[in-house]
Design goal:
174 residues; alpha+beta; seven-stranded mixed β-sheet; 5 helices; globular
Amino acid sequence: MTRLVLNHDTYEAVLREVVPGARRFVWILTADIKDLFVESEGGRFIPFLEVLAGKLRDGVEVRLIHAKEPGPRFREEFDRFPEFLQSDAFDRLLCPRMHMKCVIADGRLAYVGSANLTGAGLGAKSEHRRNFEAGMVTDDPVMIRDLMAFLDDFYTGSLCATCQRKELCPNPLA
C-alpha cells in the first residue's frame, strides 16, 4: 500500500512509524539537517539523535546522508552520543548534490517526500510554524527495491565517476 502524507502527517509517518519500526537498518537521506526534537513515549521532547543512538544500541544499522554540514546545535547534540563514533553500524556521508528526502526501514517501508530532517520539515512544531510538506509512505516491494538499488549505487560511489561537482565535495565516495 502507498499512501499520501501531508504536513503533520509526515511527522507521524516518519518519526512515529518508519524510524521506530526499523529492526535491522534505517537509511535517512536529506538535503538539510538541523537539530530536531521528537516527542518520546513519556511525552517529553528529546533530540532525534537520541532516537538514532538508541537504534544503534539496539543493533540497528543507521545510514545518515545529507548535503551540507549541520549547524553548531546539531553538532553539539551529535557529540553527546558516543554511539555515533563508536558503532560500526553507523555511517554518515556528506554529498553536496544530495537533494533526496527519504527514509527506509529494513527494506520494507519507505517515506519519500519533500521534508528535510529539520524541525520545520519533520519535527514537532506547531502547525503554524511548520513547512508545508508532501510525501508518500509505501511498503511496495518493487518501489523500495528500485529505490534501494539507486541508493546503493550512490552509497558505493558509483555516481561519483560522472559527477561534475567534485570541487564542492569534501569527501568523494570514489
